[in-house]
Design goal:
MFS_trans_sf; single chain; globular; cell membrane; MFS; mainly alpha; Growth Hormone, Chain: A
């Protein structure tokens, strides 16, 4: 960290702030997420505020990915409830198809939430998005199944998932920008790693609940009402997240921009006219994350039970073990990206996926439970090199005026094209090719795209945030 005046001065009057004391050596206290304050980090934010920022950024993504996890892990049961008159594989394809269609609204959400976040403020966008998202998730539990209302059941499920996709479009990008703009300059990677850690924690809880339900309820109980229980948890969790967020000030960077009256009227237009190159790099960089996240962490239980032939409880257990280690690896990756740079870590992730993905899927096909757990842990560790670095990398690519929009548009557009379709594409590729390795080849191709995109980017970790 160089001894230079921070690029963004904190507006006077922000609770818990102290005046900038001038150049000094970086304090080692900024090496943790405990809220320890470095008076020269350029933010001067109090320990209490930092803890609340971390909590507020964590919980929204946690609720979002808890829902996605439950939907993915209970896909076979949900398929039975909403598509009982089709064969098993077609019902599963239709269920994953609904999952994919809901993602197509995310680019629209990215435009709208990006505009709100860059014009009105990060806090306002995040506070509203979590309210909509948790309400939509809760509504899934209330939809009658096909045997009761017929074709209206999958139609209602689709409508609710579209609302979820729209609201979720503001979560990941907003929380990442929020943390990066609050973080000490030399620890932006570590702080931003809270966002993917929250998504993995949501997946972990979803996996644990799916495992608990699968071993404690009979198939009839699961099909009739058991699958609904996890979705009911969204309402209280969302209200807690909303409460935490409305109590926070907006980020120092946005408040400085607002004070100087430099917020632009049409941030998305400015993004496409003046910042199209970093936008293209961002889209390419997200491809591996979009495909890898859903294949490795969401689709895997279905793959292990339906394709490999593993018992459903064992497949959930293997994924749960992998997720626990994944969360730890995420923070190590955040630290590594601060030390070695975002570009180097992201390129390493892409190369590992190109070389190792297909061999690992071959090992999964052995059906050996211990080997499956080890492979999932290794795949998860490889994914964290991308997932733990991407939030800070994307936030640093764009200036404050369009940071929310740049992140939200690139992240959600790519996830709509490749993330939401990953479960459907993996299932379809296996059906068309007859090869259980098809998801591995698909994941390897995604890694090649990201490798090219990141190679064209500049290193962002050591530079000050663009104003």
């Amino acid at each position: 960290m160089t001894n230079e005046t921070p690029p963004v001065a904190l507006p006077a009057g922000l609770p818990g702030t102290e005046p900038y004391a001038g150049p000094a050596s970086p304090s080692p206290r900024t090496t943790t997420l405990s809220g320890q304050q470095n008076p020269n980090d350029g933010t001067g934010v109090s320990k209490k505020t930092l803890r609340r920022v971390i909590g507020a950024s964590f919980i929204g993504n946690f609720v979002e990915w808890f829902d996605y996890a439950v939907y993915g892990y209970l896909a076979v049961t949900i398929a039975h409830a909403f598509f009982p008159e089709t064969d098993k594989q077609t019902a599963l394809l239709l269920t994953f198809g609904l999952f994919a269609i809901s993602f197509f609204v995310r680019p629209i959400g990215g435009f709208i939430w990006g505009h709100i976040g860059d014009r009105v403020g990060r806090k306002n966008a995040l506070s509203l998005s979590i309210l909509i998202m948790s309400a939509a998730t809760f509504a899934i539990a209330l939809i009658p199944d096909y045997n009761i209302i017929g074709i209206w059941a999958p139609i209602l499920l689709l409508l609710v998932r579209v609302v979820q996709g729209f609201s979720a479009a503001g979560e990941y990008a907003g929380a990442s920008a929020f943390l990066v703009e609050y973080a000490p300059a030399n620890r932006r990677g570590l702080y931003a790693a809270v966002v993917p850690a929250s998504t993995a924690t949501g997946l972990l809880l979803g996996s644990l609940i799916a495992l608990l339900l699968s071993v404690s309820l009979s198939p009839d109980q699961m099909n009739s009402w058991g699958w609904r229980l996890p979705f009911l948890l969204a309402a209280p969790m969302g209200l807690i997240g909303r409460y935490i967020r409305v109590k926070l000030e907006d980020t120092p960077a946005f408040l400085a921009l607002e004070k100087e009256d430099e917020a632009i009227k049409a941030p998305v237009t400015d993004l496409f006219r003046k910042h199209w190159r970093p936008l293209l790099i961002a889209v390419g960089a997200v491809v591996l994350n979009a495909v890898g996240f859903y294949v490795v962490l969401s689709y895997m239980p279905t793959y292990l039970s339906e394709v490999v032939g593993l018992d459903s409880s064992e497949s959930f257990l293997a994924t749960t073990v992998a997720l626990v280690t994944y969360i730890g690896f995420i923070f190590l990756t955040g630290l590594a990206s601060d030390r070695f740079g975002r570009k180097r870590v992201l390129i390493t992730a892409s190369i590992l996926f190109v070389v190792l993905t297909v061999p690992m899927f071959l090992l999964l096909s052995t059906g050996n439970f211990l080997i499956i757990i080890l492979v999932q842990i290794l795949l998860g560790a490889m994914l964290t090199l991308n997932d733990g670095t991407l939030p800070s990398f994307l936030a640093e690519l764009f200036p404050t005026k369009i940071r929310y929009s740049g992140f939200a548009v690139s992240f959600n557009l790519t996830n709509a094209l490749f993330g939401g379709t990953a479960l459907f594409a993996s299932t379809l590729l296996i059906k068309l090719s007859g090869s259980n390795l098809a998801p591995g080849w698909y994941l390897m191709a995604a890694a090649v795209v990201s490798l090219i995109a990141v190679s064209l980017a500049k290193e962002t970790s050591k530079a000050p945030l663009m104003h």
